[in-house]
Design a protein that fits this description.
Layout lengths: L2 E2 L13 E2 L13 E2 L5 E2 L10 H4 L2 H22 L1 H21 L5 H20 L7 H19 L4 H9 L10 H30 L3 H10 L2 H16 L5
Antiparallel strand pairs: 1-2, 3-4
Helix pairs in contact: 2-3, 2-4, 2-8, 3-4, 5-7, 7-8, 7-9
Keywords: Membrane, Transmembrane, Transmembrane helix
Pfam families: DUF3159
Protein name: Intracellular septation protein A
């Protein structure tokens, strides 16, 4: 804080010192806050919409949704169908409660619980453990068909899903190189789903419940991880204008 003096030229008297006070913002004026990606958020700026991946709880949420299925596979191999169904349902409820306590997004837990409930219902109606895997087998067939159709109509699912979960829009379709890259990546995903249908379908017809459970686990996230890695490599190598 500094003082300044002024001498009147006519009288020669020295005025009283004046003090410079620090600027005080108007009451109630909020300071800039840090936005969700590190930038400032100012008054009147709309909130950023969460991406689909965030709504799903990110990678932990996706993994959590698959816990009940993994529990059924293991317990069914050890204790039989009834024990496997009960353990899967208990695991689904436990995941939901755990995410509620942690205040994490519960959508993946609810999806996993609904999914395991449908699988358990089918297994109970058929009276066979292999019935638990039938909904997933049909779902893989649907996804494989959808991937093939998306390639034909030039809306490859790999690009639609990737840019959808990151809320990046669909401008990538105007780039021929990216369109070709995502089409190739979608072909890989179609192959993955087709492999699931063929391998698990043969085991289902053979009533090989033990190997069907093993195939379900082995062709789950490990195979999807390889497909995702291939997608990333293909898209990164796509030439840019």
């Amino acid at each position: 804080m500094s003082d300044s003096h002024h001498i009147d030229d006519r009288t020669g008297h020295r005025d009283a010192p004046t003090t410079r006070l620090p600027r005080v913002d108007a009451p109630g004026a909020p300071e800039d806050e840090t936005g969700p990606i590190g930038g400032p958020v100012r008054d009147g700026e709309p909130d950023r919409m969460p991406t689909l991946m965030e709504q799903m709880g990110g990678v932990p949420g996706i993994i959590a949704s698959s816990v009940p299925v993994a529990v059924f596979v293991v317990v069914n191999l050890i204790g039989g169908l009834r024990a496997g169904l009960i353990a899967a349902l208990v695991a689904g409820v436990a995941v939901l409660v755990w995410r509620l306590v942690r205040k994490d997004p519960i959508q993946p837990a609810i999806s996993g619980l609904i999914g395991v409930g449908v699988c358990a219902l089918v297994a109970r109606q058929t009276g066979e453990a292999r019935g638990f895997y039938l909904p997933g087998l049909l779902y893989s067939a649907f996804l494989g068909l959808a991937a093939l159709v998306s390639m034909v109509v030039r809306w490859p699912l790999a690009g639609v899903i990737w840019h959808g979960i990151n809320s990046r829009g669909m401008e990538w379709r105007n780039d021929p190189a990216l369109l070709r890259a995502y089409t190739l990546a979608t072909g890989i995903w179609a192959f993955v789903f087709a492999a699931r249908v063929v391998v698990q379908g043969l085991l289902y017809d053979a009533n090989a419940e033990t190997w069907l459970g093993v195939a379900r686990l082995a062709m789950g996230y490990p195979l999807l991880g390889l497909a995702l890695l291939a997608t990333v490599l293909i898209v990164r190598r796509a030439p840019r204008p």
